Amino acid sequence: MQQVYTDTFEHTFDEKGRITVPREWRGEGFESVLDVVPATEGFLRVYPGSFFAAKIQQLAGASFEDPRRRVLEKLAPLIQRVKSDEQNRIMIKDKLRKEAALTKVAVLVGRFDHFEIWDAAKWKSAAVEDASFEQVMREAGL
């Protein structure tokens, strides 16, 4: 069963740049290996390790000149692979925290198949608070 990430959680980074993965996201299907990538909008996206592994596996037999492979290879230097420790924390490198302008307090936002890490102040200004569940369901055609 694949892990589903929902809800939002406020957590703090410790002095080593570690942040705890919420207990609610560590149930059945939780992968302790995660891939962290910067988003151009100023936050981090975090995917289960199997997400990119599946994409790479699709290209395993492709030649080095295959355009799909060349595009996928451009992602490799941008991804930080992390493994949660015994306390279920992941360590985010300084470089990525700075790119996303993350301070000590962060908000982890579930996005079903991945989650995002936002600076708490930036999340508060970017979050859509006025939308109701019913409104969003209608907009999604559900």
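The record above closes out task 2.4. Task 2.5 opens with a second protein, given below.
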Amino acid sequence: MLALKILDTKEFMNLLLRSTVFDSFLLYEATVKTSITYEINGRYQKDFFDSLEDDLKPKEDFICWESQKPHVFQWMKGKRTPLFFKISFLLSKENLNRFLLESNLPFSEDTIGGLFFHIQYDGHTIFLRDGVSFQTFTMDKSLEHSWSEYLLTFLKRHSITYEILD
């Protein structure tokens, strides 16, 4: 599992909240603590969409970050920084399948619960951790290693500086 310390907080927050860099990810959950605590569970409530035509129903179980980013930005903006926040992202099914294909890994979508990464701010520092959820037990760590490598490449491509933690 990868654990990183983000070195340029201001630039990272700009990319997270004001750019499209993270828009391709799904929002699993978010918590922002300011004068009160805001929480988002990113899972769609399927009952809400029962009466809609099939083509209008969400294709994923979780909402895209792009649609929730303005809300989270509203909670965080101002003269005072949040006391804490945690945002958990998930790779979409389409991107998961593309990742598995490009990585040439022996896994299928139905054996994987999700490829995640978590951004956490403790009031001073931003940390990033990755994670893999499996539907079945496996001793094979190749997916975890490939996902960590993908995230490091993603960060470098967007000039996000970090320090690897032990």
